Recover the amino acids of this structure.
């Protein structure tokens, strides 16, 4: 008897997830500004918050679809828990790799709470890092062992960091003897 109740509840829960997914289509232009950043439309396009001046000349915000398509997470609005765990803010305007320039952001992004639980954010910043020539998993690994080294690699580019790693002390030249 108890197992049939559990089965019924599990079936109900599963069906409710499918029903919710089919009834609630996410359209960036219909999202309020407090849900826009880090959302993905049902079409698979990332949502971005943009600012503009309204008729009164005051700064206002609108949510727009970007041209960036995400294959696996269409119709997704990022949770507040992930926003906090990853050190982000829903009022971010646009999408930029500039966040990598602060050690606090990289520490938050690479933390287990973010990196292991927030695939949408990790996917976004994985692609932004790749655009800068940085492999995010390697950056996060360096962040754990040597945060300052991770920042050096990010700021100087992967090639410079590899060259730095391969440099060995150069021995002093042998004195030249002339006869």
């Amino acid at each position: 008897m108890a197992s049939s109740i559990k089965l019924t509840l599990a079936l109900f829960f599963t069906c409710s997830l499918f029903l919710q997914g089919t009834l609630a289509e996410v359209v960036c232009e219909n999202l309020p500004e407090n849900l826009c950043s880090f959302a993905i439309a049902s079409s698979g396009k990332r949502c971005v918050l943009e600012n503009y001046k309204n008729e009164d000349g005051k700064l206002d915000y609108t949510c727009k679809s970007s041209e960036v398509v995400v294959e696996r997470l269409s119709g997704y609005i990022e949770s507040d828990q992930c926003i906090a765990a990853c050190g982000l803010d829903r009022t971010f305007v646009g999408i930029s790799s500039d966040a990598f320039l602060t050690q606090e952001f990289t520490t938050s992004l690479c933390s287990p709470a973010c990196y292991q639980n927030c695939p949408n954010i990790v996917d976004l910043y994985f692609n932004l890092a790749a655009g800068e020539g940085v492999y995010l998993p390697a950056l996060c690994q360096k962040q754990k062992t040597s945060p300052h080294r991770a920042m050096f690699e990010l700021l100087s580019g992967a090639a410079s960091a590899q060259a730095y790693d391969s440099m060995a002390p150069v021995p002093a030249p042998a004195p030249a003897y002339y006869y």
Notes: Residues 25-77 form one domain.
